[in-house]
Amino acid sequence: MAYEAVIGLECHIQLKTRTKMFCGCEVEFGRPANWNTCPVCLGLPGALPRTNITAIAYALRLGLALGCDIRHESVFARKNYFYPDMPKNYQVTQYDLPLCEHGTLPVVVEGESRTFELMRIHCEEDAGKSFHPERVGDRRISRLEFNRAGTPLLELVTEPVLRTPAECAAFLTQLRKLVRALGISDGDMEKGQLRCDANVSLRPVGQSALGVKTEIKNLNSIKGVEKGVTAEIDRQRRELESGARIVQATLLYDADHDKLAIMRTKESAHDYRYFPEPDLPVLRVTDADLDAARAALPELPWVREARFVSQYGLPPYDAAVLGDSRELADYYEACARGGDAKLASNWIMTEVLRVRNDRGWPLEKWAEQVPAPRMRAFLDKVAAKELPGPVAKQVFAWMADEAGSVDELLALHGIQVQGSAEDLRPLVLQVLDENPGPVAQYLAGKTITIGYLTGAVMKKSGGQAVPQVVQQLLAEELARRG
Amino acid sequence: MSRAPNETWKLGAAALAARVRDGRVSVTDAVESGWVGPASMWEHDVNAVAHHDAEVRREAAAGASGQGPLAGVPVLVKDNLCTVEYPTTCASRILAGYRAPYDATVIRRLREAGAVIVGKGNMDEFAMGSSNEYSAYGPTRNPFDLSRVPGGSSGGPAAAVAYGLVPVALGSDTGGSVRQPASFCGVYGLKPTYGRLSRYGLVAFGSSLDQVGIFARHARDVAVTYAVLAGEDGYDATTRLGPAPDVSTFAAGVKGLRFGWPANLWAQGVDAAIVAALERSAIALERAGAVRVVLDFLPGTYGVAAYYLVATAEASSNLARFDGVRYGFRHEEAADVRAMYTRTRSEGFGPEVQRRILLGTYALSSGYYDAYYLKAQRARTRIRREFQSAFAQCDFMLLPAAPSLAFKVGEKTDDPLAMYLSDVFTIGANLAGIPGLTVPAGRTSENLPVGVQMLGPEDSEPNLLRAARALEVGGDVALLSTDEDPEFVWPTKR
Predict the structure, then answer these.
(1) B27-48: per-residue pLDDT in tens?
(2) Domain spanning B5-252+397-479 has what CATH number?
(3) Residues B10, B33, B78, B422: which is the catalytic one?
(4) ipTM for the predicted complex
(5) Class assignment of domain A421-481?
(6) pTM for this predicted structure
(7) Which residues of chain B does A275 touch, with a Cβ-Cβ cutoff of 8 Å?
(8) Any catalytic annotation for residue B153?
(9) Which residues contact B74 (CB under 8 A, 6 or more apart)?
(10) Residue B76: DSSP 8-state
(11) Residue B237: its chain A contacts at CB < 8 A?
(12) Between B48 and which of A182, A383, B156, B186 could a Cys-Cys bridge form, CB atoms 3.0 to 4.6 Å apart?
C-alpha cells in the first residue's frame, strides 16, 4: 500500500530582545554561568514576572508578516511540570488564548510556490540548561545554568499541512529568512535560536483521516529536520507494512548517528495542568500597538525576492540567495541600484559570500570594511572593463584587508592596468609581427587563431590587459593587414 | 499627656514617629522599647517571632534616618515577606535557612518611611491555616489567653502587636489571614484592595487572592502605614495603576455614610458575643452620624468551596518551585532527581501544605479542570457581582470577622473542614478583590477580644478607616480628630 506522510512543525524562535521575557536581565551569550540572573528568572520565592513589551512587539511583527489574526486580549498561562532547569517548575506561556492565530507562510519548494497554513504563534519563556551527568568522586551530578532561563521565545505551530521532508526544510529556511528580515531573531539553528519539533503520521494515500502521530524532538539543524523526518517516515512505513500499529510517542533524533530513540510514550505523557497565570494581567494589544508593528515591518523577503527578479532581472536562484538576510539584500541593492545588477549579484554571491564563509565574517564586518559605495565603485570599474579578470580578483582580495580606492590599491601594489587602446596597441603590433603564421591563417579565414593571438598579448601584458579590449584591437589591426 | 520614657513601648506608630522626628525619643530606644520593657516578658509564652537578631536590629536602628512618617517605628513582618537581613522561611522546613537576596517592595517602602524591621513573625506554614498551629517554629499563643490560638495564618504579627512588641506589623491575607487573627487578638487588621499593595517579595500562596495586610493598635496607624505602602509597583504587574486612595481623611467622621447591616448573614452559627459587638458597633456608627441600611445579603454557600479550589490550585503551582534543587531544604540521600523531589517535598512540607497541594493539583488535572477550577472562577465572578449590588445600597458593610472568638489550641487541628469553615466571613473579600478591615469591639467577661469586620467596594479604604476611627472613639464625634489615640486595652499576664 502507498502511504502519505502528514507533518506539522512546532518551531521555537528565540527573540533578540535586549532583556528577558519577564525580567530586566540582559539576554547575552558568553557570560559566566548564572551571571544574567535575578530573583525573577531564578524563580526565587516572592518574585513576580513583568512582561517585556519589546518581545510582544516582535511577536506582533511576525504575526502581521504572516497574516495572522491578532487577539486583542490574550492570556498567559502556566504550564506545570517538574524539571531541574525550569526554575519555577512551571513555564509561563500561552495556551487557549494565544496572541496570534491562523496565517500562512509562502514557500517555494523545488521551484513550486506553496503556502503553508499556520495554527498559532505565542510568546513564552525559555528554560535554563542542564549539563549531565558528571561524575564527582562516586556521585553523579548535574550542573544547572540559568543564563538562558527567561529568554523570550515565540512558538509557531503549523497545521498538519506538510507532506515531505523537503517541504519541512524549505519551510524552515523561509521562516529563518523571515525572522532575520524582521530583525526579531538571528534564527541560527546551531545556536538554538531557531528550534524545531516535528509531528509525523502516515496514512494510506487517499485516506483523509489522520494516522497516529509521533513527535520528534531535538532537531537542531535544517538538515537534521530533513533527515529526522525522513527517518521517522521510513520507520513508520516499515512498522505499518509489517502490520504493526504506530504508538503515540515522543522521539529524540540523534543527528550524529541518524537514529531515533523513544523518549516517552503516551502513557507517560505529562498532564501540564494549564491555568491562567494569575501574576500577569490579560495581555492587551491596542490598535496603536498594531500600527506601530505594521510600521516596523520591512519589505517581506518573498516580496523583495520577486522584486529582485522583476526589477533587476535576476534569476530566481540569485534572488533567493541574496534575499537570505535583510542585511545581505540591503547590501546587494546598494551595490546594484543604477549599475550592472547581474554583475553585482555574481560578485556578491560568489566572492563576498566566499570571504564571509572562509573568514567567518558576519556580513556587517564585510560591509564595514567594504561599504556598499566602495564595492559599487569597484563593480563600476569591472563593468567598464577597466579591470581584467585576474586583476579584479586581486583588487577584491586587497579590499577585504586594506583601505583605499581601486586606483590607490593598484598604485600601492605597483600594478598598472593596461586597459586603454593606447597602452595596448604597441603590444598588439609586436605580437602580430612575431606571429606571421597565425596571422596568415587568420587572414585565410581561420579566425579562431585570434584566441591564440589574444593569449600572446595577455602574456606580454603580464595578465594586466583586458581581454575584450585586446581582442578588439587585434581585430582592428588584422583587418588593416587583410 | 506625656508618658514616662519606660512607656515608649505603649505608643502607637504615628505617636512614636512624631517623638522620634522631633528628637524626644531616639531610634534605638524606639526600636528596643518592645524588647526591654514589660512587653519583653511575653515573647517566651506567646512565640510570635520566628526570626530576630538583637545585633542586626541595633545596627538597623543605628543606621536609620529618624525621618519619615514611620520614623524609628519597629515593625515585625510575617515570615513570608522577603527581607535581606533575616531568613524568609514561611515557617516551613522546606525553606530552612533560606535568605532572600532582595527586599519585598513593601519592606523597601517601610524602610524608606523610616521604619526598622525587627524580625519575622511566626505564621502557619506558607500561610495555610487559621490558628498558627502549623508552624515549623511551634504554635503562637494568644496573649489574651495562652491556652487559645491567636488566629492565623498571620498569628505571630497579630499577637506581637497585641502584647506590645511593636506598634505595627505586616501580615498577608489570602482568605482572612490578617482579619481573623486581628479579631482574635483585639487589634486592627486591614486587607487592602487587591493590587493596592505590591506582592513583589511576598512568597505566593494564592496569587489572585494574596494581599499584604497591616496590623496596628490604632486606626490612625493603619492609615499612616497604608499611605506608606500603597501604590503602583513596576515589579508587580497586578498592582493597580495610579495613586492609591487618600486615607489621611480617616478622622473625618462618618456623617452621612451608609453602612450595610446584613443581619441574616449571622442568623446562626455566630458567637453571641460577636453578635452583641456588631450591634454595639452599629449603634456607635449611628451615634456618629452614619446611616444603617438593612441588607438582604447572603452570598451563596459556594464561597468556601470556590475559595478552596482557587487558592489550592494556585498554591499547587506556586509551591512547585520548592523542590530542593536551588535553595532551602534538600533530601540528600535520594538516588535520582525524581526521588529527591519526592523525599524533599514529603519531608519539607507539613501535612496541611501537602493536603492543599494535593487538592490543588487534583483541581487542575486534565478532565477535572472544567468541573473544579473553571466552575470556581465562575462562582467567583458571581460573588463579585453580589458584592457589587450590595455596595450599590451602602458605602460599606458590617459583619463578623469570624464565627467564633479565639478557640483553644488543638481544638480544630484534627478537623480541617471545621478550620476551613472558620474563614466563611473573610474569603469573600479575597474572591472579590475588595478591602476588609477588622476593628476591635471590646472584650468578653473573660477578657477575650471581640472584633468586627467591615467590607467595602474596591478602593474604599478611606471610608473603612473613617468608620474604624469613629468606632475607636466610641462614636464620640468630639474625639474623632484629637491627636491622642485612646488607650489600648492590654492583655494581662495570667
Answers:
(1) 999 999 999 988 889 999 999 9
(2) 3.90.1300.10
(3) B78
(4) 0.95
(5) mainly alpha
(6) 0.89
(7) 313-314, 317, 364, 369, 373
(8) yes
(9) B30, B31, B33, B34, B115, B116, B118, B165, B166, B167
(10) E
(11) 48-51, 279-281
(12) B156
